[in-house]
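Example 5.3 — Regulatory LuxR family protein
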Amino acid sequence: MTRRSPFIQTEWRRVPDNVAIPPYRGGVTEQPEPRAPGDQLSTRVYMHLLRDPSPRRSHLAKEGFSEPEIVAALTTLQARGLVDASRRDAIDVAPPETTLPAYAADLERQARATRSAIEGLAHMYSAARAGDGSTDASREIRLLDTVDDIENAFFRAARGAESRIVRLVARSERMDQVVIRHAESIVAKPTARAGGLERMAVFEQSILEVEGAFAALEAIRADGVDVRLTPHLAFSVLAVDRASAVIDISHLEPQGGGSLFVRQRQLASALMDMCIGLFSLATPLPRSPQGAALGRLSERDGQVLALLAAGASDQTIARQLSISQRTVERRVRAIMEELGATTRFQAGTTAVRRGYL
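Solution (predicted structure tokens):
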């Protein structure tokens, strides 16, 4: 049976032209549950956008898509770098001959990183269910029952870091608060004997929806951590020196049950490979340009530009900088005019080319 590409689909839904157009809610940050399965919905919307010479949200509504479906599909397509849907109605669609190969390559790299961890994860699964309560397996792979257990395991593992520590942070209410209030605890500081410790952290891009998150991530980076953003993380991981790791699923089980403290070297090494693979696919947190690099732009414009480059909507930028969305819209127009750009995509590439970011 031949499998079709997720971007090749010919079924289209038509509705009368007098269908009500849903109101714009600002950005594409919400992700309500669509009626159609996610990938199928995104494919249908993407195919319509490719065929529309002037794609708009209102056109999608006339095609019969509900507001939650439009928001969900555009959120997915923007995270994949296929569209820029941050404006109120108009949608910028990047040429598929450039974006689709890049997206496919990212999927292939992520698949390779995941496959490299399969053997170790299978070992973990079997060891955790062995049930004999004995031996090296129970000492090397320990089930964690509470959030306190997770935090204790994190500090035990991080304390022994000597060369490299990588943390993937899946979003949860608890971790959002940790990032905002205790950013310094996200990745352990190097000890005197580990002065050259390489520290890396990957956060879900939607963390930028939390007020104060951008400043917190900038503070983490200023502390020497290489901070990156990715559309989604399945679970949280702390990987240390290919010697130990903590798998944290408290975003799925708020009490922390089912998480693991790993000190089995082969599995810890596989988890490190997975973390490094996902880190390499993630986007570096953009730096706010300052001083001479700003040219005629203000320091606030530099912050707006950095958040734009991170994929933030106007609504999210307003929340992070504690200014009105109308002010953000004015500053974005001024930035685009200064850069000679007609779209936000073009503004981002021009800013990089000029060394602003």
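Remark. The two ends are 47 Å apart (CA to CA).
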